[in-house]
Structure formats: structure tokens, C-alpha cells
Amino acid sequence: MWEKLLRLDRRWIFVLVALSVLIPLLRPLGLPMRTTEPVLNLYTYIDTLKPHDKAVILVTDFDPSTMPELLPMAEAIMRHCFARKIPLILYGGMYPTFVGMAKMALSRVLPDFPDVKYGEDYVFLGYIPGTSLIILSMGESISKTFGNDYYGNKLDSLPLMQRVKNYDQVALVIDLSGSGTPVWWIIYGYQRYGVRVGCGTTAVSAAQYYPYLQTGQFVGMLGGLKGAAEYETLIERAGIPPGRKTASIGMDAQSIVHLMLIFLIILGNIGYFIVRRKR
Amino acid sequence: MRRTGPLVVAFIMGFAMIFQYFIPHPLSQKFYEIMVQQWLIIISIFLYLFGLRSFTLYHYHKVRRKKEGWYFSLIALLAALITVIIGFGTRRGPLFDKIYDYILAPLQATMFSLLAFFIASAAYRAFRARNLEATLLLVTATIVMLGRVPFGAFMWHKLPDVVEWILKYPNMAAQRGILIGVGLGMIATSMKIILGIERSYLGGE
């Protein structure tokens, strides 16, 4: 019987995964969310910034493959900045396919903040080639590096960019990334120009950034869907419209899938030891 | 000369960038600004042209010689061509955005979502406590997986703290060791490239 179970057709496992995702999405469990220290640190850092003063640069260094984890982070941070009147520079990332993510997040958040004005409260920077060099170049002059914003306006003509010349007028850079780019911001942005850096990353990458959190090179970090859900909870508690709370809804599904995975691993191991003993 | 030229450029520019970092003279700053804001960005743009050339030639030859899976190459070429035409033709207009929102985004998201299914299947078949190391990995992974979801805290309120401890101490120590090793390796490799000892980046050999 165990041998048969160990050779279980993988399509049954696929069905189990699909159901574990679908059912909690259709009938959310509403499990309570506990805030972790890295998320709270990033939230508090942004929350204590002065309104209409130094800007926050939000970088969407991810494409649709990691969108479920990182897009809710972008939306939640944007909402936080708009609600607290913190000037926001949205940078569409270091590769061409990343810009669409910034645009998508913006289109979901803006309807809840009708008083936010383009050019004064936020600016959208598009894509230019150069990857890590862009980080260095922005330290000298943001306007000279990009020239125009995403919509083709001269950056120098926008009121916000007349105030924000380089990192000296930037309070924090937050890199939301599914790859190793947050480290580039530490090497080229923080170490060279002293701009503070925070990051949001996929759950699978989060573990590799703990050394940078301990040294204070990262102000804080949102790790995976859980990090996004925690941030959504924090802004909601502060009375900021959290939107659809896609990360929080997704956490229920993730809970069940993790439980299902653990069950499968335990079952697989029991079967493995029973079959091995028989042999 | 074909090999000496790039080696000389790498040597001069490598040392120039090292020296300018440690010498805060206005001349050094100006050099840095010109390098970073002009030269390097222009060079990066040319890299895209090389990439486009390689992409086109690779798929073109595959289609021409009717190699296995040539029709996928044809789709890749057509997709690239259509996207470029629409991008330039509409000046990145709504149609270009629709290609992103309704073709690229769902395709990429679907591909990545499939991982969940394969990870579940692989975990069931291959994640075995065969020896002490594998058992440690298995137990740690199980604790982290549980503690990183709300259900873990629901089961035992201290579980997220245990996970945070694992990430902050044992994980961080290992990560830091790896990072120091990688950093030293990067310095050694960079010096070998600047001094012309490491030449594989020139191709050929």
C-alpha cells in the first residue's frame, strides 16, 4: 500500500495544490496577521518622515513572474506615501519589463487618492538602460540621468524634481525586487552616496538579506507575500485605505498550501521509512 | 592588437575608476561624472543592439535550417518584430500597453505559478530524511514554512519568534560567510581582469 502511495500520480498532487489555493481564495479564513520587526522598521521609518519634505524613491524591480508577492508591496507603500503627503518618485526599474508593474500599481492606487497631483506629489520615471550605473548616476543628478519622465515631460519642468536634485533630497530608496538588485542599491546608493535603503523581496530571497538588516544597511524589509500582508495591515490600522488587500487574502491560501506541503513531506517520509524497513 | 587593445582599455579604466574613488579632487569627480552619466550608459545602450543581433541571428538560423522546435523560434521572431513595430508605431501607446497587460503579464505569471505544482510534487518525492544533514534541513524547512504563515501563529503563538530567530542567527551567519567568500572572490577576479591575467571575457580561448 505504501509503495503504491509513494508512486502516486503527480496529477493528484497538482489537484491538491489547486484546491488548497482556490478554496481559501473563494472563502477567506481571515487568520490574524502578526507584524515582524523588519516590516515594522520600514513602516515606522516612512511613517515618521516629514510631509512635503524629502522624497521616497520606490523602485519596481520586478516583472509579472513575481507580481503576486511584490505588487501588493508597491501598492501598500504608495498608499502610505500618498496618505502621509511624502513626495514619491516612482522608478520603473532597471529592465524594460519592470516599468509595466509600476504603471499597474499606480493605476490601482490613484483612484483612492484624487487629491494627489502629478509633478508635485509624485513623479514617474521610466526605463533607461544602464542597470546599476543608473544608481550611481542618480547620485549625481536624477534629472540629467533620465532627462524626461515616463510620459515624456522634461524632469526639470516638474516642481517636485526642481526640489529633488539627487540623493541629498531623498529620505529613502525602497527596492522591490525578485532578484539581487537591492544589494546594488546598498553598494552604489548607500555606500557611495549615503542614501538610506529598504527592500521588498520574494519569500525565497528574503533569507539572503538578513546580514544587511543586522548591519543597518537596510532600514527594513518586506519578505514575500507575508511582508506585503503585514504592511497592508499596518496601513489599515493607521486609517489609510488599504485597497483590495490582495496580499492578506493570498496569505490564507499560502497557509493552506504550506500545511498541505508539510503533510505531503511527512507522508512521503513515513512511506519511505516503512518501505525501506521492509526491504 | 585585437586582444591587446581591450586589455589596455580594461587596465587603464579599471585603475582610473579605483583611483578616482579614493581621490576626492574636482578633476576626479568630473571624470567620474562623465564616465557614469555618459560613457557607461551609452555603452549599455549598445549592448542592447548586440543582444538584439544575437537573438535575431540565433532564431533566424534555427528557422532557416529547420532545426528541432524551429516553429518556436519563428514565434519568438514574430513576437519581437510585432512588439517593436507597435512600440515604435504607436509611440508606446495603449496597444503597446495591452500587449504587456494581456499577453506578457499573464504568460510570465502562469509560467512562474507552475512552480508551486512542481515544488509540491518534488517535495513529496524527494524531500527525505536520509541522513543527519537532510533531517536538519527538513525540520528547519518545516518550522520556517509553518512560522511564515498566519496558521503557524494560530497553532503556537511563539512559532513566528522561533522562525525569526532561525533567520536572524543561524541563517545570517551562514549567509554572511557566503557573502564574505563571494566578496573576496569578486575582488580577486576583478584584479585578474584589470591586470590582464583573466582573459576569458575576450572570447576565443
The string of secondary-structure elements of chain B, in order, is HHHHHHH
What is the count of β-strands of chain A?
6
Q: Main β-sheet of chain A, in a few words? A: 6 strands, parallel
Estimate the mean pLDDT confidence of chain B. Answer: 90
Name the structural class of chain A.
Answer: alpha/beta
CATH class of the largest domain in chain A: Alpha Beta
Rg of chain A (CA only): 21 Å
Structural class of chain B: mainly alpha
Strand fraction of chain B equals under 5%
Strand content of chain A: 5-15%
Average pLDDT level of chain A:
93
Radius of gyration of chain B: 26 Å
- Please give the largest β-sheet of chain B: none
The tally of domains of chain A stands at 2
- How many strands appear in the DSSP assignment of chain B? 0
Fraction of residues in helix of chain A: 40-55%
Helical stretch tally of chain B: 7
Terminal-residue CA separation of chain B? 16 Å
What is the topological layout?
The complex is a heterodimer of chains A (279) and B (205).
Chain A: H1 2-6, H2 10-26, H3 37-47, E1 55-61, H4 67-84, E2 88-91, H5 99-109, E3 122-125, H6 132-140, H7 142-146, H8 159-163, E4 170-177, H9 181-193, E5 197-201, H10 203-206, H11 210-214, E6 218-223, H12 224-237, H13 246-278
Helix pairs in contact in A: 2-13, 4-5, 4-12, 6-9, 12-13
Chain B: H1 4-22, H2 26-64, H3 70-89, H4 94-126, H5 132-147, H6 150-155, H7 159-194
Helix pairs in contact in B: 1-2, 2-3, 5-7
Folded structure, characterized:
The complex is a heterodimer of chains A (279) and B (205). Chain A has 279 residues and is of the alpha/beta class. Chain A folds into 2 domains: 1-30 and 248-279; 32-244, Rossmann fold (3-Layer(aba) Sandwich). Helix content of chain A is 54%, strand content 12%. Chain A has a 6-stranded parallel β-sheet, sandwiched between helices. In chain A, helix 2 (10-26) runs antiparallel to helix 13, helix 6 packs parallel to helix 9 and helix 12 runs antiparallel to helix 13 (246-278). The longest helix of chain A is centred in the last third of the chain and has 33 residues, at 246-278. Chain A is elongated, with a radius of gyration of 21 Å. The mean pLDDT of chain A is 93. By secondary structure, chain B is mainly α. Among the domains of chain B are: 1-69; 129-196, no CATH class. Chain B contains 7 helices and no strands. Chain B is extended. Chains A and B meet through helix 2, helix 5, helix 6, helix 11 and helix 13 of A and helix 2, helix 4, helix 5, helix 6 and helix 7 of B.
